[in-house]
Structures are given as structure tokens and as C-alpha cells.
Amino acid sequence: VPMVAPGNVQVHVINSTLAKVHWDPVPLKTVRGHLQGYKVYYWKVQSLSRRSRRHVEKKILTFRGNKTFGMLPGLEPYSSYKLNVRVVNGKGEGPASPDKVFKTPEGVPSSPSFLKITNPTLDSLTLEWGLPTHPNGILTSYILKFQPINNTHELGPLVEIRIPANESTLILKNLNYSTRYKFYFNAQTSVGSGSQITEEAVTIMDE
User: Fold this and answer.
1) What is the pLDDT of residue 55?
2) Sign of the C-alpha dihedral computed for residues 120, 126, 127 and 128 taken in this order
3) φ and ψ at 103, to 5 degrees?
4) Looking at residue 53, what is its pLDDT?
5) For residue 141, what are the β-bridge partners?
6) By residue range, what is the domain housing residue 12?
7) Which of 127, 142, 172, 199 has the most crowded Cβ, counting Cβ within 10 A?
8) Last residue of a domain, one of 56, 72, 104
9) Residue 98 burial by CB count (10 A; 0-12/13-18/19+): exposed, middle or buried?
10) Amino acid 60: pLDDT
């Protein structure tokens, strides 16, 4: 098997899900056989928004021939990763380069995990929601938009409310009685808005 590890491994983080890695080629005489390519082993150490450590699943990408760089796609935003590089010949892999740590920046969050609308009265509705399953960063706020829908399914004026990120319930007041409302709800990080979740609910007709 090859004798030495690739040197001077560098990682350039391009965005929250993509990084480029490059390395110096090993001297050909240390390959001790036919140079087949280089393998990059990489794995997520932890999410920076949650301190939980799961089972670490190592991923491997193979770059054929004498390439000295490669792209690592499909990374998770706002996470800490490690990687190393090994050279491969027909017999197997050489030793791993020292582990290199890199971090991906924040991305936009997934949609809130749920949106429940309860306690209808003549002029109010209570909203409850759950955190996004993948915050992909530090949540800065939630955005709630809502509008009335009349019997012919025409949409009325849209109202938008920004809600602090640490809230999980809201009582909406001053609504019209016996009216159906449509709600659009999403979370935000400093990067932008995540995908939205929608719900409908009706205020009651009379006490």
C-alpha cells in the first residue's frame, strides 16, 4: 500500500452546504504501485445550533487519477466537520493526512415543525408552533402572515407580524367573527427565511 499521506490539505468553504478541498500530490515513488486516485473521508462532528452528538457517519468521496482537489457537496449548514485525505493504489489506501476541521456557515431553517390553531373566540385565535427540525443556524425571528378568505375563496388583505425567536405561542386579537383565515408561517436566521407552513382556521359565529 502507499507509504505517505497527502500533505498541505486545505479546505475552502464555499457556502453552507458546499466546500472545496485540495491537497499536494504524494511523490509517485511513495505510491508503490499504480496511482488510482485520492479518497477524502469526511464526517460531521456536531451541529453548532444543537450540542447533541449522534452516531458519526463517515462519508467517502473518491477522486480518480492525479487530481489534487475535489468538491464536498451536501453538507449541513452551521455544522462542524472533520476530514482527511488518503492516496489509493491497486492494493489499498495509504495513511490518512492529519484531520482538518472546518465549519459551515448558517443557512435558512426548515419549516416550523408544526402550527396549531386553537381556542377560537368571536375575535381571536391562539397559535402554537414548534421549532424547525433543522434550524441550520441561530433563529432570529418568526414571520406570520395571515389574511381572511371569503365564501368565494377570495383572499383579503395580507397582514404580516414578526415574532421573537424565543416565543412559541401567540394570541391573535381583533379578528372578524365567523371568518376563515389563512396563515403562512416560517422561521428566519440571519441568512433569510425558511420554507413556510400553512394552516386555516375560523373564528366562531356567536357566543
Assistant:
1) 72
2) negative
3) -125, 140
4) 65
5) 164, 188
6) 7-104
7) 142
8) 104
9) exposed
10) 97
Give every residue of the chain whose pLDDT is below 70, as ranges. 51-54, 207
Q: Half-sphere exposure of 69 toward its Cβ, with a 13 Å CA cutoff?
A: 8
What is the tens place of the pLDDT at every residue in 59-93? 999 999 999 999 999 999 999 999 999 999 999 99
Pair 27, 80 in one domain: yes
Partners of residue 47 on adjacent β-strands: 79
**113-116, long-range: CB < 8 A, 24+ apart:** 114/197, 115/183, 115/185, 115/197, 115/198, 115/199, 116/199
Last residue of a domain, one of 104, 126, 145: 104
Strand partners, 84: 41
pLDDT at 150: 84
207: in domain: no
pLDDT in the model for residue 52:
65
Give the integer Cα–Cα distance in Å for 80 and 85: 17
Question: What's the N-to-C CA distance of the chain in angstroms?
Answer: 82
